[in-house]
Amino acid sequence: MDVKATAHLFEAFLLIVEWGATSTDEVVKAVGTSSIVSERLLGAVLNKADEAVMRRFEGYSGSKLRLLQR
Amino acid sequence: MVSALPGEGKTTVAASLADFLARSGNRTLLIDADLRNPSLSRMLGYADAPGLLDVVANQTPFDDLVITDSKHKFDFLPSATRIKPSNSSDILSSPAMKQLLKSAKE
Fold first, then answer.
1. How confident is the model over B19-35, as pLDDT tens digits?
2. Exposed, middle or buried, A51 (CB in 10 Å: 0-12/13-18/19+)?
3. Does A16 contact B13 at a Cβ distance shorter than 8 Å?
4. B33 contacts A46 by C-beta, under 8 angstroms
5. How far is A62 from chain B (nearest CA, A)?
6. Model confidence at A69, in pLDDT bands (50, 70, 90)?
7. Residue B83 contacts residue B42 (beta carbons within 8 Å)
8. Distance separating alpha carbons of residues B33 and B88, to the nearest angstrom
9. Which residues of B touch A (CB under 8 A)?
10. What tens digit of pLDDT does each residue of A9-26 get?
11. What pTM was computed for the model?
């Protein structure tokens, strides 16, 4: 979309991912479409997270959290 | 802000982050660059205000259109799409856009 045409204008990107709605594949694919975006990606925000569920996973490694994504 | 799908929350996160950065003492400018669906401009109450499109397509001076609203500590440039352009990618990748970002840094 607009991102590929304009990515070169921006120094950094932040990826927003909706908890439980977006699959890992979709995220990887989206970031992969622009090499500029993937190079300049600072990180991601996991949005609309279920805080009660998140609290249960406090102290565990990131791999447990990935199981929660479709 | 990018996301894989629409509706993941870029608008909300962008506004929240701008607010946080500005309140932390950083000089912050938030730009709604979504010419097709200006949800950020709508959320902040500037759906009909002139903005990015006027600066890039009509050469309206950037300084004239940046909004300093006492409600927020950050400055804001709306998208300005009273007329939805069909070539938003062209507009966003134009030299005028590069110039806008350059002036914004100063």
1. 999 999 999 999 999 88
2. exposed
3. yes
4. no
5. 20
6. very low
7. no
8. 9
9. 1-5, 7-10, 12-13, 17, 33-36, 88-90, 92-93, 97-98, 101
10. 899 999 999 988 888 888
11. 0.83
